[in-house]
Design brief:
The complex is a heterodimer of chains A (84) and B (394).
Chain A: H1 6-20, H2 41-55, H3 70-83
Chain B: H1 3-17, E1 31-32, E2 37-40, E3 43-47, H2 60-73, H3 88-100, E4 105-109, H4 112-123, E5 129-133, H5 138-147, E6 150-154, H6 159-169, E7 176-181, H7 193-202, E8 206-210, H8 225-228, E9 237-241, E10 251-255, H9 263-266, H10 268-271, H11 278-292, H12 295-315, E11 326-331, H13 334-346, E12 349-350, E13 352-354, E14 364-369, H14 376-393
Parallel strand pairs in B: 3-12, 5-6, 5-7, 7-8, 8-9
Antiparallel strand pairs in B: 1-2, 2-3, 4-10, 9-10, 11-14, 13-14
Helix pairs in contact in B: 2-11, 3-11, 4-5, 12-14, 13-14
The chains are: A mainly alpha (84), B alpha/beta (394).
The structure holds pyridoxal-5'-phosphate.
């Protein structure tokens, strides 16, 4: 798990996000979570909880203010995972 | 989208959720008759959505104390506790609250919201960590944001999830503040305090407990969850509000840590606001005495809470995890909650309506709160109405 790459995290997020959004669209790293996928704050927090369990990390809520796209979220998770 | 257009979009989303004309939020109360009845429009309604847990809002002792304070000290202090707003009453109330909790230190704030903002932002800062329950009140979230600390949320009342998060912190757990509530305002359930204390000791963290909804409600003398569980010496900081069982407005933090006093010099929500009015302080002091001696009121409150909880359960409604003065009816859709809320209102019963995203787990809530002044007949009437409405709702 510690060997996971940024690309793998992005791929995994794209897969998981498809279950969290009602919007029928192709999800790419550039997809905006709120404007494209209509992920509201509650859904985002639930997704984060799932990811936290999977990677055994905690994502601080304050770090999410800079997260707009799937790529931003993947970068954040990678950063936390690699420093833990 | 410019600033005003953003507000228009939010207003449109709100209106789409709530039919026009339905005044569930910010409903105008025209007159208050007693701790349990008020006039809304032309209706005399039974109030089942207040935080007046001990029913003290019209207590003669509190009213007399407030009148006297207005006559002797005027209507407002017009200044901060740090400047011209530090009256005898504020200091006396701090002493009395410290005594009530058998603690050394107490700070009184102008609201309970500010008590959380001021305490949290005074205790932690950038580089520190706060671990907050997933169902934490907005004042706790806002205090955390103001602090600049890293904010980590754990699953509601889930001790194992909290432990995981403490473990992941490594040495940083020593700079972590865990924040929980005695009774949670949405579902009315209580925190597993003893287990959380064990964790905070094992990880050498600090624990803050907000007793907003449990003050006056739990424990022999009404201290809250700390008293019910015998944990008063294990909790580092307790915050609370005067706006619920004490029927005033204001808030406090008590602690045995002498460092609490330092918050008076650094905490903006304490310093940069006017102190509570003399009448508020006087009625709160009187209410605190009644609360301390209010064993019978607590007994009545719990009797009422059990009566409503068991009857709604029997009818078939899905309720929060445990009986208590907050009885939350959980519904799958906002439409069901609105139907129930409207039906109750048509029968002259006022309750709180909570829609997503404010309600947990995407549910909608019809949230009842009971007080010690409700009579068995009033609760019977509520139960009958709920069961009559059941087929149309579920
Ligand atoms: C858990 C909790 N803490 C704090 C507060 C804030 O209290 P106040 O009304 O005194 O600002 C509330 C009020 O709703 C609350 O529910």
């Amino acid at each position: 798990m510690s060997e996971i790459t940024q690309v793998q995290i992005t791929e995994l997020l794209c897969q998981r996000l498809a279950c969290f959004t009602d919007v029928d669209t192709e999800i790419s790293p550039e997809t905006n979570l709120i404007t494209h996928l209509a992920i509201d704050s509650v859904k985002l927090l639930n997704l984060i909880m799932e990811i936290e369990d999977q990677f055994d990390i905690s994502v601080p809520l304050n770090a999410l203010v800079d997260v707009l796209t799937v790529q931003d979220l993947a970068n954040l998770i990678y950063k936390i995972k690699s420093s833990s | 989208m410019n600033l005003l257009e953003k507000l228009d979009a939010a207003a449109a989303a709100r209106k789409a959720q709530l039919p026009e004309g339905l005044g569930a939020f910010g409903i105008p109360i025209e007159e208050s008759y007693s701790a349990t009845e008020a006039r809304i429009g032309e209706r005399r309604v039974l109030m089942l959505g207040t935080n007046n847990y001990l029913g003290l809002s019209f207590s003669p002792e509190c009213r007399e104390a407030a009148h006297k304070a207005i006559d002797q000290e005027g209507t407002g202090t017009t200044g901060s506790r740090m400047a011209n707003g530090n009256y005898y009453g504020h200091r006396a109330l701090e002493r009395e609250l410290a005594e009530f909790y058998h603690c050394h230190e107490c700070i009184v704030f102008t609201t309970g919201y500010q008590a959380n903002l001021g305490t949290i932002s005074g205790l932690v800062g950038a580089g520190d960590v706060v671990l907050i329950d997933g169902d934490a009140h907005a004042s706790i979230y806002d205090g955390c944001i103001l602090s600049g600390a890293d904010i980590i949320r754990f699953r509601h009342n889930d001790v194992a999830d909290l432990e995981k998060r403490l473990r992941r912190l490594g040495d940083r757990s020593q700079n972590a503040l865990i924040i929980i509530e005695g009774i949670y305002s949405m579902l009315g359930d209580q925190a597993p305090l003893a287990k959380i204390v064990e964790l905070k000791n094992a990880y050498q963290s600090t624990l803050l407990l907000d007793e907003a909804h449990s003050l006056g409600v739990l424990g022999k003398t009404g201290q809250g969850l700390v008293e019910k569980t015998g944990m008063i010496n294990e909790v580092d900081f307790i915050t609370g509000t005067f706006s619920k069982s004490l029927c005033g407005i204001g808030g406090f933090c008590v602690s045995n840590h002498p460092q609490l006093d330092q918050l008076r010099y650094i905490s903006h929500p304490y310093i940069f606001t006017a102190s509570p009015s003399p009448a508020t302080i006087a009625s709160t002091r009187a209410a605190l005495k009644l609360l301390h001696d209010g064993y019978l009121l607590r007994e009545q409150l719990w009797k009422n809470a059990h009566q409503l909880f068991s009857c709604l359960k029997k009818t078939g409604y899905c309720l929060g995890p445990e009986p208590g003065p907050i009885v939350a009816v959980l519904l799958d859709s906002p439409k069901q909650a609105l139907t129930l809320w409207n039906g109750l209102m048509e029968h002259d019963i006022y309750v709180n309506l909570v829609l997503p995203p404010a309600a947990p787990e995407g549910k909608s809530l019809v949230r009842c709160s009971i007080n010690a002044a409700h009579t068995a007949e009033q609760i019977d009437r509520v139960c009958e109405t709920f069961s009559r409405l059941y087929p149309a709702v579920v």
